[in-house]
Amino acid sequence: MDFTVAICTYNGEKRLPEVLDALLEQQETEGIKWEVLVVDNNSKDSTAAVVFNYARQWRSDSQLRYVFEKQQGTALARVKAFQEAQSRELVGFLDDDNIPGKTWIAQAYRFGSQNPQVGAYGGNIHAKLDSPPPSYFNQVKIYLTIYNRGKEAFCYHRNAKSRKIPAGPGCVFRKQAWYEVVPNADKLLVAGRDPKTLASGEDAALLYAIQNTQWELWHNPHMEIWHHIAPHRLEQTYLRKLARGYGLSQHRVRMARYDGWQRLLVRLLLPLLLLRESLQTFRFYLQHRKSFQKDFSKLCELEAKIGRLYGPFLT
Q1: Helix, strand or coil, per DSSP, at residue 90
Q2: What separation in angstroms does the CA of 265 have from each of 164, 213, 254?
Q3: Residue with more model confidence, 302 or 253
Q4: Nearest partner of 257 among 200, 211, 196, 194, judged by Cα
C-alpha cells in the first residue's frame, strides 16, 4: 500500500458522508495503491453503519476500512491509525469535516515520494460555510484552523525568526518520522483536546517535536482541503470559548518547541514570562476595553490572551 488516508471521527455519521464522497471522486490516482481508514473514536451514533454502507460500493482501485478505538481522544485515535495503516511510508490525516480537493491524494503521495527528507507536510485549508460569514470571520478564522500559506512550496525552517509549522488537519506524516518521535513522546503529544475548555495543541506539539529532529516540515500548496464549519461554530459564545482554548494551548505548544535543558530554562523563567504576559494582557484590555462590544475579534483576542495566562497551570 502506497498511501493511507486516516479519518479520526467521533459521532461523525452526519459529517463523514461528505468526506467519503470527496474521496470517492479522487482523480489522478492511477498507479497509486491507497486506502481509507476510518478510526471510530468510541462513537455513540451510527458512524459504523455509515462506513460499512460506503464500503459495499467503494471504488475498485482503493479500499475502505473501519477500526474502533475505545479510548477517547484524537491523539489516541491517531496512534490507532498508525498501528492499523497498511501503507509503507505515508499516512495523511483528515478530520471528519475536512473535504479534500479532487487531487488531494495524488498531490500528497507525489510530494512525499519525491521528498524523502520530509517528515511531515501540509497544505492550504479553506473555509466551507453554509451561510455568509460574519463580519469578523477573517479576524477569528485562525481559531477555526483556516490557513492559506500561499501558492509556493517552502520548508518550515526551525531557525526562522517567526517559527511556523503546518496545520494539523490535512497533514501527511512519514511513518519513520512518526515512530522516531511518538514512542519517546511525553504527555505534551498525547493530551488531546479538553472537551470542557477546548484546549488542545497536540497537533502543534507533535509537529514541533518532528521539527526538532533532522526531519523537515514543508508546505505543499497543491494539497487543498475545505473545512466545513457548522453554523454553531460561528456563534459568538462558541468562538469566545474556542479563543480561550486556543490561548490555554499555547504553553503546551511553547514547551514542545524546546528540548530538555531549554524546557528547564523556560520553567525557571515562567514567573517572569507570566508577569510580562499579564502586563501585556492588561495593557491590551485598557487599550481596547471601549471597543469590545463593537469589535468581536478584539474580544476573542482578549480571551486568547487570558487563556495564555492560565495555560501553564492547566498543563
Answers
A1: strand
A2: 22, 20, 12
A3: 302
A4: 211
